[in-house]
Amino acid sequence: MVSLTTPVCDFGWKAPEFSLPGIDGKVWTLSDAMGPNGLLVMFICNHCPYVKAIRPRLVRDLAELKQHGIHAIAVMSNDPTAYAEDSFDNMKQVAAEFGFPFPYVIDETQAVAKAYGAVCTPDFFGFNRDFELQYRGRFDESRKDIVPEGVRRDLFEAMQEIAATQRGPAEQIPSMGCSIKWKDA
After folding, report:
1. Structural domain boundaries in the chain
2. Residue 99 pLDDT more than 90?
3. 3-179 falls under which CATH superfamily?
């Protein structure tokens, strides 16, 4: 497992369009996923210990952000043939187990991860309602371990700010996680 950190936020960068199949049987596009005040596009997977450490808090925060008009979509771009835990069936199982309040879609060709420049899981892209990037940072200070209650909720606070002002925070700490598992060329 290779741990990587994300690049800094490129404020105003426009979200690339996508059309990806969800575990709910629907094909999701960028516009379908957008909320009235913004959208969080996140690259996650099932097997990554960084993602596993935040899942319950991620579900809590995104359910709360929905009340602020911020919607979210989770994209799984890993190669499931190399990582069976990331298969489509396992995506359904994990989403049901944790009660994901957002669509969970698969990027089978990995073209969406490449278009976004995603490097790791989790990798968060917070957009305002005009599809302009305003956040490219960490969830919180957790890494592979669950952190104690009361830590600063970096992602939550940033997305709340975007909901209220359409601008993200100037100071952002990069996300860290497992490398995206690219298919062999």
Report:
1. 3-179
2. yes
3. Glutaredoxin (3.40.30.10)
